[in-house]
Amino acid sequence: MASAGNLTKRILSALVLAPIALGAIYLGGTAYLCLILLTVLVAQAEWMRLVAPGAVIWIHVAAFAALILEALATLFFGFLTGIGVIVGGSLLIVSLVRLTRAAGARRIALGVLYIGATMAATLWLRDLPEIGLGLTCFLFGTVWATDMGAYAAGRAIGGPKLAPRLSPNKTWAGLIGGMISAAIAGFLIAMAFDAGLRFVAAAVASVLAVIAQSGDLFESAMKRRAGVKDSGTLIPGHGGVLDRIDGLMAAAPVLAIWQLAVGDRLGWW
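Structure (tokenized):
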């Protein structure tokens, strides 16, 4: 569990970062694009340090270029086109890395694909007419509520570990607390935006909580493989950008796929 000093840093960092994120979400447009693009580019750099710390500069450039092209494709042509661009970019990076016989080609491409899917989802959701702001607030609010609920329940209840080999501090109680907290937050956000099916929103939020916790565990596995505690040191009390958005990275594409597949037909939002 976090020490008192580390918890204070986490709270202060959140007090600085949350208004910036909320302001960009509310404004949308260029402000939101800059926030997301800057976040994913830093996350990509941190991922490269985890899986291929000795990678030559052109591999970084190729990954950054793929992400920027994907952002443009998503904004102009939609979520699926953005995903197609980043899949193509990932395959190209695998081929280029293998041509030079460098190590970690698959893990490098996985990072580009994973981070790119996050960017495509977050940009596409915010850009949806009429419901974009509400769905984006729902996504971020659900993930943040999951983190807070899991932390509070884990500290207060403790109990059996969720995945001790990957993240020794996570408990089943924390997972359940995160699901409950996310469901409440999802319901309240749906109410605030006058969503059509608020209890469906609560159910979706609880599923996203599980997905977000899975993303957290996945990043923990990658850090354990790399032999590091945090993905970076940019955010006091949190570590790196990847450490802060690991849950969002897993949840955002799932919400985007849900909305694309059944959202309009169900009319839940």
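The chain has one domain: 4-266. The chain has a mean pLDDT of 90.
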